[in-house]
Amino acid sequence: MQNENNRSHFRLSYPHSVCPKLIMDHDQYDIENVSECGVKVIAGDDMEFMVDDSFLATIHFSDGKEFGLGGQVVRTEGNYVCLHLDAPLPKSILRKEVLLVMHNYPYH
User: Fold this and answer.
1) CB neighbours of 24 closer than 8 A, spacing ≥ 6?
2) Which of 62, 78, 87, 104 is buried most, with the most CB atoms less than 10 Å from its CB?
3) What does the pLDDT look like over 35-70, one tens digit per residue?
4) Phi/psi of residue 11, each to 5°?
5) Which residues belong to any copy of the PilZ domain (predicted)?
6) CA 15 → CA 9, 12, 62, 65, 90, distances in Å?
7) Which residues contact 90 (CB under 8 A, 6 or more apart)?
């Protein structure tokens, strides 16, 4: 039996002060962490997210760059929503985000 916490992709967790925003329609959510193929969003008590729903959104990064994406809601966990992406985030974006967090928040 595989451990449920084993991950196929590295996850980058953000300090709250620099977390990217997920923008869907007119709503904006803080992103807890990202991986190549997924995003964990702080949804609070927003029950708009239902497992298996599809979504289209934009990630707005702290440097002002934006990236459009789509996928499915795979899990809800308390105030969090886990999203699987239809197409992976580019490695160049992930690399830049890792360096930003490591450089500015070495003890995070």
Assistant:
1) 55, 56, 57
2) 62
3) 999 999 999 877 788 999 999 999 999 889 999 999
4) -115, 130
5) 6-81
6) 20, 10, 12, 18, 21
7) 67
